[in-house]
Amino acid sequence: MENVNRKIHAATAEAIDLAARLLSKGKLVAFPTETVYGLGADAFNTEAIARIFAAKQRPRFDPLIVHISRIEDLDAVAKPCDLAWRLADAFWPGPLTLVLSKRGHVPDIVTAGLPTVAVRMPDNSIAIRLIELSGRAVAAPSANQFGRTSPTSASHVQESMGHVVDMIIDGGPCRIGLESSILSIIDPGRPRLLRPGGVPIEDIQRIIGPVAEPEPSAAVITAPGMLPRHYAPRTPIRLLTDAHSASVQTDRRIGLLALTRPVKAQGYTAVEALSESGDLTEAAANLYAALHRLDAAGLDLILCEPMPEWGFGAAIMDRLRRATQTGNGWPPANAEWKT
Length: 339
Ligand code: TXA
Ligand code: MG
Known about the structure:
The chain is of the alpha/beta class and 339 residues long. The chain has ten helices and 16 strands. The protein starts with 7 loop residues before the first strand and ends with a strand. Threonylcarbamoyladenylate binds at residues 33, 35-36, 38, 62-65, 95, 97, 99, 111, 114, 116-118, 122, 140-142, 179-180, 182, 194, 223-226.
């Protein structure tokens, strides 16, 4: 029987229209993108943005991505350089977020007081229609509690954010399943990847040449939200050192997250294979749903096999390393800000 409190609406034209009106009234709407579900609010309504931070229990130092529905709208929120237009032409709509100098009227609460703004145009017709109809740029983090596993379905959003969001548009499972890649081009001569994601770094480099990799250490924080511990299920979770998980002999309930279905591993209560054929793109699309299922299985521990680090593997391993970090990772020792 359907719960009367369910906020989920099928993505009909009427529902998208209603959602756009809610956004323009300062409400919070969760919507599908090609990467993960976003928790959207009018980027220029500071009260609505404050509600996003409260709903997610997200620290105010962690800025939001501004979503636009047309490439030319980039100019309304940021000061795009030539490289920005080249990248937008090559990858938008799509899972690449660009960090650029911001326009003065973008509220400080969106950018956590930084002089820069992160912008992207999602490759999802529901998201595009919603942003277009709302007549606004839409600030949206992933629609999960801060630090937790990101949602790739409307029901993931309902489970963790159903009580705080005004409406959830159901667009089915997210095609890519991992957040956008974030590229800082504040210094166009030295583009830097801040977060690996939906566009593999190899694809970006094919268009613009060398790109600096994310800082390996937490000592210098190039993206304020790039905390060491992130994307984590509630269940304790650890990364294995090699990909040939042996059998376990224990009376504890252990789950295994693997790329392909392991032949030998026995003794696990639950096993999630991300791609039967070992395809990393398919694995990325299945990652968060598999983590949500393992987290709901009443396990004592989740073990993750490492994945190869090319293509989508780099972004998958970034998420697994952060999900398996112990401690909340904040503040890291010797932390210094760098923007
Ligand atoms: O795929 C995505 O990017 C999804 C969908 C909903 O678009 N959004 C998403 O948002 O992943 P969120 O808030 O979960 O992650 C945004 C990241 C944070 O790590 C934040 O620190 C970083 O973007 N960020 C935002 N503005 C920034 C800025 N001006 N400089 C550096 N990093 C920034
Ligand atoms: Mg997030």
